[in-house]
Write a structure and sequence with these properties.
It contains ten helices and twelve strands. It has a five-stranded antiparallel β-sheet. Strands 9-8-12-11-10 form a five-stranded antiparallel β-sheet, with helices on both faces. The chain is elongated and about 60 Å long. Helix content is about 40%, strand content about 20%. It has about 290 residues and is of the alpha+beta class. The longest helix has 21 residues. InterPro entries: FUZ/MON1/HPS1_longin_1, Mon1.
Length: about 290
């Protein structure tokens, strides 16, 4: 019988980085502060990774303010570093994936992390205290970050800034569009200042429909971030209101994201910038299900 995912992830979390088996994983991802303090690790007990992350920090040497971005160990592994954000990221890969693909995956993980801690907040915190223990904030989002890695691995087009569209007949797509537009217009007429900015429908990790108000747009990274949240909290019949920071849309604040898991693999997501939007989002979701 296949091991339950949560049990497997717990086992991975408890791995000892001094154990030789720790280095046998095909791909490892770590997040740490510029001071070398570990924040998150795909494998291994993050509490035991201080020395490991300090070593990685040492590898990122600077010459004329130009940090090392990658290290190739011939016939063994490719190590890439991302140091352009307040937190530093490292992927150690033995998968033969290119630097471009690995950097795209790293960008997705970073984007998902910033969905619950906006980048300006992390920057301000670390500027005030470089030794701040970010693990205290990250600890409750371990499954989300692991799902970010999984989603990034599964997203074929992430390296070229693309997402996957679910195939539908033109008539089916037109029917959905007309139904959503009608529903949104009714709500906006009833609640003048409580409009819906985005509506998206997902089938598993593919987009069935996407609608932005007044030409508002979501980047592929924002969309993949929503998919990651869906994969983390998916429950058929469940409705969830979740404040999320979609950094490419607005890195300084949260939007109210309403997830309606209407059936297996199918989720409607409605997004508003106003905290009081739960009423209209719930009405919209109920109308869209009909």
């Amino acid at each position: 019988m296949e091991e339950d995912q949560k049990e497997k992830w717990l086992r991975h979390y408890e791995e000892d980085p001094t154990d030789p088996k720790f280095h046998l994983h095909k791909k490892q991802c770590m997040i740490f502060t510029p001071a070398g303090k570990p924040v998150f690790s795909r494998y291994g007990n993050v509490l035991l990774l201080s020395s490991y992350c300090a070593t990685l920090t040492g590898i990122i040497s600077y010459t004329n303010n130009d940090p090392i971005k990658e290290v190739k160990i011939i016939n063994e592994a490719l190590i890439i570093f991302e140091t352009d954000s307040p937190l530093w990221y490292c992927i150690i890969s033995q998968t033969n994936e290119s630097c471009k693909v690995l950097r795209a995956q790293c960008s997705i993980v970073s984007h998902v992390l910033h969905s619950f801690i906006p980048m300006p907040t992390i920057k301000q915190t670390l500027d005030s205290s470089s030794n701040y223990d970010v693990r205290r904030v990250i600890s409750g989002h371990y499954s989300l970050l692991k799902n970010a890695l999984k989603t990034a691995n599964n997203c074929i087009g992430c390296s070229v800034n693309c997402t996957t569209i679910y195939p539908l007949l033109v008539e089916q797509r037109r029917f959905i569009e007309e139904h959503i537009e009608s529903s949104v217009k009714v709500i906006e007429k009833q609640m003048d200042k409580d409009g819906i900015i985005f509506v998206l429908i997902f089938k598993n990790e593919q987009i069935v429909f996407a609608r932005g108000r007044n030409n508002a747009k979501l980047s592929s990274r924002d969309i993949i971030t929503l998919i990651t949240h869906i994969n983390t909290m998916r429950r058929v019949g469940k409705k969830v209101l979740q404040p999320i920071c979609l950094s490419d849309f607005n890195e300084d604040g949260f939007v109210q994201s309403y997830f309606d898991f209407i059936k297996k693999g199918v989720t409607i997501v409605a997004i508003s910038t106003l905290p009081e939007s739960i009423v209209s989002l719930n009405i919209h979701s109920n109308k869209s299900n009909k």
